């Protein structure tokens, strides 16, 4: 079967309400997979595993599939909720910054513009984001946090989105599980919806940047979790091409989500899949004048799950004398999420800067 890549845009590849993504910037060759084909085609499933190993990023066409269409509709509705939330004053939003409030100290909640750093020089980020925890919205947190009114007014929508995003990503996990030839259910068991976990919906927004002062909006990073489901419409996301060592834009495509592999799955697979480095820069071309919103769902293992390789299948066993750090999902998130916060750095709680992909696994 022929699998397209994003090298060039097709006729229905533009968002009608936005200036077009330029045709003269290089774009990354993500495979275009289809959710509906994935349900029945072995070739599509093989392509999924290939994408998870080679680049760790791929497009997933959500159209012509009930779950996919539901996620497209709900994500559009959440983009509206996102607008309402960011219309709140900075003072109001800052009430939900839990990054230094004990006993709730957490990466959930609001992060103001410039609260994170994008590079080793300490340059500040150019985005605001809000991390809305799955467990609060599914009413399964021991100690739920307060969240802004626009989110609480759409609590059912957020809950429904968490369930659907989790269902979709679980389906992808099942395919990866079978390609790794693990016991059926091995990966799913560590990601049961009812387990307390770091899963959350992230609402990211970046205002247009002054043309004379462009900077990285979100610094180069890998995602912590197992799989990430991303909807964006304005360009700016870039992936590091593993062979060239250069960053390349990911063209947003209507009707498609972008899916990427995170660090936890690298650990579980003993380095077989790839958690690729990516970043967000100012939107290219005519899109540079747009506010850039994105909607991310991070699927993560349960908080108490140990991030060690699975045994069985094609997962390479540890070599004699080789040891793996025994860190739980919760400990890993705590260190990693706080490592890019400038305030945390100042207070001396700068976490370990954890980056994992195939090549770096050994130095983590
Ligand atoms: O906004 C985007 O397109 C990507 C955001 C991202 O990589 C993240 O929040 O981890
Ligand atoms: Fe990311």
UniProtKB/TrEMBL annotation:
GO terms for molecular function: metal ion binding; oxidoreductase activity. GO terms for biological process: small molecule biosynthetic process. SUPFAM superfamilies: Clavaminate synthase-like. Residues 197-301 form the Fe2OG dioxygenase domain. InterPro entries: DIOX_N, IPNS-like_FE2OG_OXY, IPNS-like_sf, Iron_ascorbate_oxido_reductase, Oxoglu/Fe-dep_dioxygenase_dom. Keywords: Iron, Metal-binding, Oxidoreductase. Belongs to the iron/ascorbate-dependent oxidoreductase family. PANTHER family: 2-OXOGLUTARATE (2OG) AND FE(II)-DEPENDENT OXYGENASE SUPERFAMILY PROTEIN-RELATED. This is Oxidoreductase. It comes from Sporormia fimetaria CBS 119925. The lineage of its organism: Eukaryota, Fungi, Dikarya, Ascomycota, Pezizomycotina.
């Amino acid at each position: 079967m022929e699998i397209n890549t994003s090298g060039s845009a097709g006729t229905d590849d533009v968002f009608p309400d936005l200036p077009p993504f330029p045709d003269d910037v290089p774009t990354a060759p993500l495979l275009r997979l289809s959710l509906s084909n994935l349900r029945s085609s072995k070739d599509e499933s093989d392509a999924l595993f290939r994408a998870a190993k080679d680049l760790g990023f791929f497009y997933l066409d959500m159209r012509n599939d009930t779950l996919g269409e539901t996620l497209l509709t709900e994500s559009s509705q959440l983009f509206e909720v996102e607008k309402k939330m960011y219309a709140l004053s900075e003072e109001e939003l800052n009430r939900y910054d839990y990054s230094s409030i004990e006993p709730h100290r957490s990466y959930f909640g609001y992060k103001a513009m410039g609260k994170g750093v994008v590079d080793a020089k300490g340059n500040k980020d150019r985005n605001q984001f809000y991390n809305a925890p799955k467990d609060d919205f599914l009413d399964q947190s021991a100690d739920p946090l307060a969240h802004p009114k626009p989110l609480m007014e759409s609590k059912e929508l957020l809950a429904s989105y968490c369930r659907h995003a989790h269902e979709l990503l679980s389906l992808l996990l099942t395919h990866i599980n079978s390609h790794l030839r693990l016991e059926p259910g091995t990966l799913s068991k560590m990601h049961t919806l009812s387990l307390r976990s770091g899963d959350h919906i992230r609402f990211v927004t970046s205002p247009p940047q002054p043309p004379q002062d462009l900077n990285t909006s979100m610094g180069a990073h890998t995602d912590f979790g197992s799989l990430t489901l991303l909807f964006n419409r304005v360009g700016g996301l870039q992936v590091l091409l593993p062979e060239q060592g250069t960053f390349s834009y990911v063209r947003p495509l209507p009707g498609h989500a972008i899916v990427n592999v995170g660090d936890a799955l690298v650990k579980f697979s003993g380095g077989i899949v790839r958690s690729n480095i990516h970043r967000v820069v100012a939107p290219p071309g005519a899109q540079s004048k747009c506010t850039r919103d994105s909607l991310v769902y991070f699927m993560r293992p349960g908080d108490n799950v140990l991030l060690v390789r699975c045994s069985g299948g094609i997962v390479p066993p540890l070599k004699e004398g080789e040891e793996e750090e025994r860190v739980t999902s919760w400990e890993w998130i705590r260190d990693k999420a706080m490592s890019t916060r400038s305030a945390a750095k100042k207070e001396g709680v700068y976490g370990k800067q954890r980056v994992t992909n195939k090549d770096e696994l050994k130095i983590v």
